[in-house]
TrEMBL record:
Transmembrane segments: none annotated. One of its GO terms (molecular function) is peroxiredoxin activity. This is Alkylhydroperoxidase like protein, AhpD family. Gene3D superfamilies: AhpD-like. SUPFAM superfamilies: AhpD-like. It comes from the Bacteria. Residues 33-83 form the Carboxymuconolactone decarboxylase-like domain.
Length: 197
């Protein structure tokens, strides 16, 4: 086999950078989780938007189920996983476009887009949105790095990956990710007809 694993994964450096961003945001996280500024459905749309870019299959499974549980239709879930914001509530579009931009630029959004986020939602809600984006970005790369190791075992290595790092990461993350895979296979997934690579 000579295929390549093409999803974005952690490198030791990117993992440290992303964790550093999350630690910096840590003082604002309790408010993000408890304030109610972001509704559960809005949160799930943000998480699906970022996941649509990074293509983590574990996050697709879990957050498709959570989105459906929070009243988001299968059609809207599929649309979000296709990086489309056409069917989302108008008041959420700026946030969802920012989430896509953040992921597409690999955590380097243009300052004008961040300012538009603040201007639209206010500083606290904009911080909540960024916190959810950072957390799902970390989760996406966690799942992808685990899958990169599995892919390497099949002879389809990520050209930017590191076998030793991937192996260590896979061992540490396996209990969580394999549990998520088992749970999602036993649940009703509104996207069962879509292929998750």
């Amino acid at each position: 086999m000579n295929g390549k694993f093409g999803k974005r994964v952690f490198t030791p450096q990117s993992m440290i950078e992303i964790l550093t961003d999350i630690v910096r945001a840590a003082p604002t996280m309790p408010g993000t989780f408890t304030s109610g500024r972001i509704s559960p459905a809005f949160r799930e749309r943000i998480l699906l938007a970022v996941t649509s870019v990074n293509r983590c299959r574990y996050c697709q499974w879990v957050h498709s189920d959570l989105a459906a549980a929070n009243g988001i239709s299968g059609e809207q879930i599929a649309s979000l996983l296709g990086s489309s914001t056409e069917s989302v509530p108008e008041e959420e579009k700026v946030a969802l476009l920012y989430a896509l931009h953040y992921a597409e630029t690999n955590r380097n959004p243009a300052p004008m887009h961040r300012q538009q986020l603040i201007d639209t939602y206010g500083a606290e809600t904009a911080q909540d949105i960024e916190n959810w984006i950072q957390l799902i970005f970390f989760s996406n790369l966690s799942g992808n790095t685990f899958d990169a190791f599995l892919s390497r075992l099949r002879g389809e290595a990520n050209p930017e990956g590191n076998a030793i790092f991937e192996a260590m990461f896979a061992v540490l993350s396996a209990p969580v990710l394999l549990s998520l895979a088992a749970i999602s296979k036993n649940s009703v997934n509104p996207l069962a007809s879509l292929k998750h690579n």
